[in-house]
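Expect sequence, tokenised fold; for instance:
***
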Amino acid sequence: LALAWVLAQGEDIATIPGTRRIERLEQNVAAAAIALSDGDVARLSKLADLGVVGARY
């Protein structure tokens, strides 16, 4: 679901997930087939908006 959400952010966004197991690779590839509605993306984006905490570079 997380990878599907990232992919839904735009065509100029790519994911580079690391994995050590074939099962995880298959799950990661399957994320590209998940079609999230605009409402789904909006709800997930709201959940992911936790704000910035701590110092940055």
Remarks:
- The CA atoms of residues 42 and 48 lie 10 Å apart.
- Residues 38-48 form the longest helix (11 residues).
